[in-house]
Amino acid sequence: MSADSFYLESAKKQFLYYKMLGEKAIDQLEPQQLFITLNEDTNSIATIIKHISGNMLSRWTDFLTSDGEKEWRNRDAEFENDLQSKKEVLEIWKKGWDCLENALKSLKPEQLSDIIYIRNEGHTVIEAINRQLAHYPYHVGQIVFYAKQLKNSSWESLSIPKNKSGNYNAEKFAKEKEIKNFTDDELKRLK
After folding, report:
1. What integer pLDDT is reported at residue 180 of this predicted model?
2. Among residues 22, 129, 142, 145, which one has the fewest Cβ atoms lying within 10 Å of its Cβ?
3. Considering the entire predicted model, what is its pTM?
4. For the CA atoms of the chain, what is the radius of gyration?
């Protein structure tokens, strides 16, 4: 497998991993918890999801052929807390992730050095992917942190549970060395 093919597969797995983390956090919440804000300067989980989806739709629609900041995008409206139900939130979440996944499926390794634009700033396809691999996990981290706070003691850990690092490491080091993406085991665990 070429380095470009390996990179593209790795990026796909990492996006999927963060998508699943977000979904596992959302699954633990009661529907009304998606809309809670701590104060007027914070965003609810629903609003964060609306923003992520808006960004995904803008960045990944016609990814190789049009600017990633689409004329039709209204970024400021993404921060208006106007969603009414968990169903709406999940539909918006799915729409954004589907757009991203379809764009990534259509990419060929030889296109990774092509130039695309976001707000008229040129990026290689690799740079654009890396930009979003930093952006979406940042927001998924917010979702997970917020959900954990809302669930308090009933939170089910999505990573290595507190005081379980020794067990986790013992299990990992009991296996033979192998080359694989860290998400391979994590995606199985999250399913």
Report:
1. 78
2. 145
3. 0.92
4. 18
